[in-house]
Specification:
Elements (H helix, E strand, L loop, with lengths): L1 H20 L12 E2 L15 E5 L3 H4 L15 E7 L6 E9 L7 E9 L2 E6 L4 H7 L16
């Protein structure tokens, strides 16, 4: 019995590592980053329901004492939005914004979609749809998700 449990555990870990390995190196650990939202985002929008947003900054660098974002975000800041299928509870899509400079609105965009046990995708060569939509959030450096107070 113990051997089967060990084998099953190794298979699960292997599956997770295979999925993560198919993501760009700079976002592979995103699930350990600061989660921006407190509860799963289930409001309608450009991306389907069931979303969580992560950022590669600790809360004290992300927001000020007033709970608002420290803007504009610094070069190298990365936001990752994962979309979870509400039925299977699996991550189906990952959307990425990475700050290219310290200037407001200067983001690089990427998207990944689950294909079997791995994610496929990467940097978007023509992110016009992303840029056009996110311009609506220019007051927060093109980030829609508000910081969730803890």
């Amino acid at each position: 019995m113990k051997k089967w449990m060990l084998l099953l555990g190794l298979m699960l870990v292997g599956g997770v590592l295979a999925q993560v390995a198919s993501l760009a190196e700079n976002i592979r650990g995103y699930a350990g980053w600061t989660r921006v939202n407190v509860n799963k985002i289930n409001t309608a929008g450009a991306h389907p329901l069931g979303k969580d947003v992560y950022v590669n900054l600790p809360p004290d660098r992300l927001v000020g004492a007033n709970g608002s974002y420290n803007l504009p975000f610094a070069q190298g800041t990365i936001f990752v939005k994962e979309r979870v299928d509400p039925t299977s509870l699996t991550v189906t899509n990952i959307y990425v914004m990475q700050k290219r400079s310290n200037s407001a609105g200067d983001w690089a965009w990427a998207a990944y979609e689950r294909k079997g046990d791995a994610f496929q995708g990467g940097a978007l060569s023509n992110p016009a749809m992303c840029v056009d939509c996110h311009r609506q959030a220019s007051a927060t450096d093109q980030v829609f998700t508000s910081w969730g107070r803890r």
